[in-house]
Amino acid sequence: MKILGIDPGFGLCGFAVLDEKNKQLDLETFGVIRTTPKKNFADRLLEIAQDFEKLLQKYQPDIVSIEDLFFTKNVTTGMQVAQVRGILILLSHKFGCRIVEPKPVEVKNCFTGNGRATKPEMKKMAQLLFKLEKIPHLDDAADAVAIAYFVAQNKNIIL
Question: Could you please report the per-residue DSSP string of the chain?
Fold first, then answer.
């Protein structure tokens, strides 16, 4: 079973692919989809869609876990992230993937045991769980690892 975890965003959109074989969980890849800041928002959405389609084609996940939207003080940013999520959900559905939408607090609690874990704690846990040489540089990538991990740990409940 392959799980593609997504931390949605329009500047950086984190992704991670976990592959579960014979009760072994391997981190195949992780990183970010990066958009060009000087482009208009519609062009950035297109960049995300094209890069996300390539991920779906390359890794052919069974499940896409896209973190649920968490509104902060900036409503405009929240609305833009919601639009990104819509594209990701549509493409995941188009590719026949099961879609899971965990809440940020659920992901953090599952990954670190603390629903209010900090970004450095999330990055450190990614390094420890998957025996990475270095701590992931970008928060978005580490969060995507945790979002995919949430499904792997809860698949009996959510699937």
Answer: -EEEEEE--SSEEEEEEEEEETTEEEEEEEEEEE--TTS-HHHHHHHHHHHHHHHHHHH--SEEEEPPP---S-HHHHHHHHHHHHHHHHHHHHTT-EEE---HHHHHHHHHS-TT--HHHHHHHHHHHTT-SS--S-HHHHHHHHHHHHHHHHHHHH-
